[in-house]
Amino acid sequence: MRRIRVILADDHDLIKEGLCRLIEKENDIECVAFANDGEEAVRVVKEFHPDVAIIDIAMPKLNGIEATKRIKKTRPETAVQIVSAYGYVNYVFVCIEGGASGYLLKMPERATLINAIRLVSKGGFAVGKEIAAELHITEQTVWSEPLKLDTLG
Predict the structure, then answer these.
(1) CA-CA distance, 151 to 20, in Å (whole number)?
(2) Helix, strand, coil tally for the chain in percent (to 5)
(3) What gap in Å lies between CA 91 and CA 81, rounded to an integer?
(4) Distance, CA of 61 to chain centre
């Protein structure tokens, strides 16, 4: 069975290592690389060709929003799942418009994170329940197709 290849981009080692440990408990998902900032995230995606890039918003050198745009421009087949401490609705919209396949708040429940990775790797969209509540959409955490911005709010 082919495993889902994931890179983790965050400027905090504890977050990257913790998320990687959660992810690698699954037989079908593997962490293939880490990035410490947005510029490195773009380079790592080009080098490792992951199925999913888990990106934080607040990173040095290049923020996660701009990194997402560059990743989607250079490697559109890589799904970008935002995992951020910021639950601001305007950040969610900007990330989705930039090509993100989902948005979760740190630290998501393990099952939510794993389900999100699996779904976005297949072209779906994943959002945490806190974000769903902010957007006034149903409480389900994952969708099987991209969320359209004109259906929100």
Answers:
(1) 33
(2) 40, 20, 40
(3) 13
(4) 19
Strand residue runs (E) in the chain:
4-9, 29-35, 52-55, 79-84, 102-105, 125-127, 142-143
Q: What's the CA gap between 108 and 146, in Å, rounded?
A: 20
**CB atoms < 10 A from the CB of 128, how many?**
22
Low-confidence ranges of the chain (pLDDT < 50): 139-153
What domains sit in the chain, N to C, each tagged with a CATH number?
Answer: 4-151 (3.40.50.2300)
pLDDT tens-digit series, residues 80-93: 998 888 777 788 88
What pLDDT, on the 0 to 100 scale, is given for residue 40?
A: 96
Distance between CA atoms of residues 11 and 60, nearest Å: 7
Strand partners, 31: 6
Phi, psi (rounded to 5 degrees) for 83: -130, 110
Name the phi and psi angles at 32, rounded to 5. Answer: -105, -20
3-state secondary structure of 45: helix
The maximal CA–CA distance of the chain, rounded, in angstroms, is: 40
Phi, psi (rounded to 5 degrees) for 148:
-90, 130
Length of the chain: 153
